[in-house]
Amino acid sequence: MLSVVFWNLQKRPRSEIVGRMARERAADLVILTECDEDDDLMLQSLRDATGKPFRNVDDLSQKVRVFSCLPISMVRPHSNSACGRISIQRIVLAKTEFLLVAVHLVSKLNRTDSDQLSDAIELSTQIKTAEKYFNHQQSVLVGDLNMNPFDEGMVCASALHGVMTRRIADKRTREVGRIEHPFFYNPMWGLMGDRTPVPSGTHYCLLGRPTEYFWNTFDQILIRPDLCYAFEDDLQVLTKIEETNLLTINGLPDKNVGSDHLPLVFRLNLE
Amino acid sequence: MSEPTRNLWPVTKINVLSPIAILRQQATYLRETTQGILEAEVAVVKSEPWTITSFWIIAPALDRYRFELFKIAHQYSDLYPVDVSCDGLLDVLRAGDHSNLIVSIVDEVNPFSYYRLNIKLNKTPFDEGFDDPSDSYDESVRVVASSQDEFVTVLELILGTARTKRTLNSLIARTNDMGLEPVGG
To answer: At A178, which CATH number?
Structure first.
C-alpha cells in the first residue's frame, strides 16, 4: 500500500506538523506547495518524526516540493514545467509503475476562467506527452489546482476531463470532434457539501463577490481509469493531525495551526 | 533613356533569424558545451494567432528528465516582437540596468480588468503601483523583444540567471552522480 499526502502550507512554518502527519499516515510521499521552509528543516522534521530516510525527490522543483522515503530507484523525476508548477515523477514499483503528477496551478485571484482553462489544457497536454513517452496511461494527478471539480478546466474534454463516477471513467476515453480524450476519475466530487463527513471542501474563502462558493475543493486527486484498480476509495481530507485540530471552533481551516487549505491523504493498493 | 527608380524594398538586413532558429542554435551550443550531458529541446506549439515555443533542458542520462526553462510567444504571422516569459525574470530585471528594454506586465491583481501596461524598465514595476511580488505576479512579467538584437539580449539575461545556472549545475551533478560517462559529444 502506497500512502501519499498533499498539503498547501500557505507559506507558513509547518515542518513540525508535516512530520507528524507523515508519521501518522505512514506516508511514502509527501507533496507540499507554498512551502517556504528550507529543505534541511523539512527533511529533518520528516526524518525525526518517521525515522525514515526522506529526501527531496527533485531539488529543481521549487513550487511543488516532493519528499519521499522510497528508494531512489523507485521515484524518478521526469519533468518540471510551467514555471515550476507542474512536477511529474515516474514511480517504479516491483510489479507496476505509474506517473505521479504534482501541481500547483495559478490562483483564481490571478487568472480569468479562460486562463484557467488554458492552464488545464497545458497540464493535460504534458500528462498525455509523458504517458505516451512511458507507453501507459497509469497516472495520478494531485495538488492545488485552484479550480473546483466542476470548473471548465477540470471537466472539459481537451483539458483534464475529470468525471464524477468510476463507471463513466471506466469507459477510458470519449470521442469529441474525432479526437479521443482520456478520462480522469475525480473522486473529489464525492467530498463536497455538507452531506459528507466534515469538512465541506479543502479551502474556505469569502471575497464578498456576487458569486461565492464559500468552501472550495481546490486540492484534488484525479486518477486515470487504468490505475483505478489500485484506488479503493481510500481518500480523506484531514481535519486532525494526531491530537492537533486543523479547524477553528467554527469548523473552518485554522491558519494559526495549519493553513488556509486542509491536507489530503490517499492510498493506492500497489506493490 | 529614363533613370532607374530607387530601390524601394524595405529590406535592410538579410541575415535575420527567427526566434526559434536562435533557440535551436542555443540548444546545439548547450549540447556541445556540456559534451552531451545536457541537451535542449525547442518545442513549438502553434496556436493561432500565437506561436508559443517552450525551451526545455533535458538530461539524457536521467531518464531524459525535462526542465522547462522559459517560453516565448509571437504572432503567427510576425517573428518580432516576441514575448519572453521566465520564472525569476523579474529579479534579474530588477538587479540589472536594462532601461532600453520594454517590459509588458499583465495586471492580474484584478482579473476583471485585464490589461497590459508597458513601462520602461528604468522605472521598476513597483514604482508603477504594484507592490505585491507574489509568485503569480512574477510569472505575469513578459519581456517584449522587438527585434533580433533585443531578443538575443533577453536570452542572454535568462541564460545567465542564477536559476539557469542552478538548473544546469544540478542536472550535471546528478548525471555525474550516476557514474555514467557523458553521452554524445
So the answer is: 3.60.10.10
- Which grid coordinates belong to B41? 529541446
Q: Is residue B6 part of a domain?
A: no
Residue B142 and residue B151 in contact, taking contact as beta carbons nearer than 8 Å:
no
Examine the pLDDT at A137 and tell me if it is beyond 50: yes
- What is the domain count for chain B? 1
A248 vs A253: CA distance, rounded Å = 6
pTM for the full predicted model: 0.88
Q: Domain range for residue B137? A: 19-177
A192/A196 Cα distance (integer angstroms): 7
Number of independent structural domains in chain A: 1
Beta-carbon contacts below 8 Å between A and B: 58
The β-bridge relationship of strands B102-106 and B141-145 is antiparallel
Q: Which of B65, B165, B166 to mutate to test the interface with A (most CBs of A within 10 A)?
A: B65
Q: Check if B87 contacts A (Cβ < 8 Å).
A: yes
Task: Give A106's DSSP letter.
Answer: P
pLDDT digits 0-9 by tens, A71-114: 999 999 999 998 889 999 999 999 999 999 999 998 887 778 88
Q: Which of A63, A82, A115 sits opposite B68 (nearest CB)?
A: A82
Q: Let me know if residue B14 belongs to a domain.
A: no
Domain containing residue A99: 2-268
Is residue B1 included in any domain, yes or no? no
In sequence order, the 6+-apart residues with CB closer than 8 A to the CB of A76 are A89, A90, A91, A92, B62, B63
A111 to chain B, closest Cα gap in Å: 6
Strand-strand pairing, A184-185 and A162-163: parallel
ipTM given for this complex = 0.88
The residue written with cell numbers 524601394 in the block is B8
* Residue A38 exposed, middle or buried by CB count within 10 Å (0-12, 13-18, 19+): exposed
> What does the DSSP 8-state code read for residue A37?
S
